Amino acid sequence: MRWAMIGLGLSVALAGCGANERRSEGAATQAAIENSAETDLPAPRSPTPTPTPTPTPTPSTTATPPADATRYRGRWTGVEGTYLVVSDSTPGAVQLEMQYDLDNKGSFPGTVTPEGIRFERGGETLLLRPSDGAATGLKWLADKRDCLTVASGEGYCRD
Length: 159
Prior knowledge:
31% strand
């Protein structure tokens, strides 16, 4: 009986040993599969640098010379006693003396731009644009050809 017990204990021990061995084999097989999958992948490609384009000058990036104030110099007449006198100040800048309605007049610095003369009056930035008399919106100036218009209802023309 003693030998039977020893044999039984020995067979249980051997059976347990086989299970551990099989588990180890399974783990080793799984690790081998994972490792081979990692080595089968293609090597990552290094990014190709994108060439930086050379900036080409555009009209917005090139310096534009100041517009010529010569065409604006002098006296311009409005309606009902309004007027505008444009005089040179510095290159690209002018001084505006104006009676712009029946009750208000003043002197304002202006900047000559390709669009006209930009100036500030009463906290508002305005633009005197070259136009004809019809664009002033004033019937008394409608037939004139050489005018400057601030807005419809305010304009000045040469006589």
